[in-house]
Amino acid sequence: MMAALIAGPASAQVNPNSPAEKACKARYDDIFGNLNSNRPDKRRISDEEIDWALNYEQVHKAGRPCSEADKPQQQASASTRQDTQPVRMVEAGGTGNAMEGQKAYNSGDFATARAKYQAGCLTDGNAVACTNLGAMASTGKGGAKDLPLARRVHKIGCAKGIAEACEHYGSMLKNGSGGPQDFAGAIAPLTTACNAKKATSCYDLGASYFYGRVGNGPDYAKARQYMAKACPGYAADGCYALALLQRDGKGGAVDLAGAARAFAQSCEAGKSDGCLEYGVAQYSGAGISADLAGARSSFGKACNTGNAGACMNAAMMARDGQGGTRDPAAAKRYFNLGCKLGIQDGCKLAGQVGA
C-alpha cells in the first residue's frame, strides 16, 4: 500500500540512463538487497514491494518503461474495493419503492430489490435507494455488474448526504471504476466520508496526498493527518501507513512510540508487514521497551502469514536462543519457510541447523 509508486506517463522509448529508470533500478536492487539480508533489524520488505519488483523484472526484460510495473497493483486495488461494497439498509421514512426494495432484498429476491431501488433512486430521488442500487450494481447482485451505473447513482447519493455513497463514489473516482480516473474529483466525496468516520476513505485520502496524486507533489503532513483518522478503523493498512510516517518522521516529528503502537494495531488486524515491523521495534527497543520474547513471537506470526523476512528473523532468534530457549527444530522450520518464500540464504542456513 505505502510502498507502491504512482505510475507516470510512459515515454515512447526507454532510456536506461534516465532518472526515472535509474530510480527504478535502484529501488529494485534495494528490495532484493534487503530481502536477502539476514540481519534481524533489516528494513522490512512488503508484499507490495515484492510484487512491484517481479513486475519490474517483466517490463524491464520487455524493454517497456518501468512505470508500467505499478499498473497491475492499481487495477487489483480497484477491483478488490469495488467487489466488497455492502448494501446499506433503508432507514424508516423512505419512499415506497425504496422500502419495497429493502423488503425484497431481505427476502432474498435481489432482482426485484434492484429494480425497486432503481425506481426509488432515479424516479423518487431517494438517497439511500441510490446507495443500495450502487452497491448492487457494483457487485452484479440482482442483475449484471454495471460500474458506470454504480458510479452515477453513488454520486447522487453522495450529493444528498449519504456517507456510504460518498465513500464508494470517491473510491470509484480514485480508482477509475465506471469512468475516468479523477484523483482531484475524489477529494471532496472522500473528505465527506472521512468526516463521517469512514476509515477506508480517510486511508484513500492519505494515500492520495502521500503519493502526490493531487496538488504539486507529495504532502506528507496531510497524508499523516488522514492516516491518523484511518487508524484504528482501517487498522491493517491505515495503522501500518501511519506507523511508517511516524517512524520515518514524514509529515511531522519522528514518533517511535506512536509508530510501535500503530504497528502493533496493524499486526493485530492481520497485516504481515505490521507484525514484522512491530517485531523490529520490540527487538531494537524503538519507542517501546526492548522485548526479545515479544519480537520472536511477532516475527513468527508474520512468518506464518507468508512474510519471508520475518521467517529469517524468527529462525535466527530460535537458533541463537534470543527471546527464549534455543529451538533448532523451529529454527530449521523457519529457515525452510524463508527458503520457500524466496530467500536463498534460508535454504543454506536450514541445512546448517542440527535438528
UniProtKB/TrEMBL annotation:
<dbReference type="InterPro" id="IPR011990">
    <property type="entry name" value="TPR-like_helical_dom_sf"/>
</dbReference>
<protein>
    <submittedName>
        <fullName>Sel1 repeat family protein</fullName>
    </submittedName>
</protein>
<dbReference type="Pfam" id="PF08238">
    <property type="entry name" value="Sel1"/>
</dbReference>
<feature type="region of interest" description="Disordered">
    <location>
        <begin position="63"/>
        <end position="87"/>
    </location>
</feature>
<comment type="similarity">
    <text>Belongs to the hcp beta-lactamase family.</text>
</comment>
<dbReference type="InterPro" id="IPR040239">
    <property type="entry name" value="HcpB-like"/>
</dbReference>
<keyword id="KW-0677">Repeat</keyword>
<feature type="compositionally biased region" description="Polar residues">
    <location>
        <begin position="72"/>
        <end position="85"/>
    </location>
</feature>
<dbReference type="InterPro" id="IPR006597">
    <property type="entry name" value="Sel1-like"/>
</dbReference>
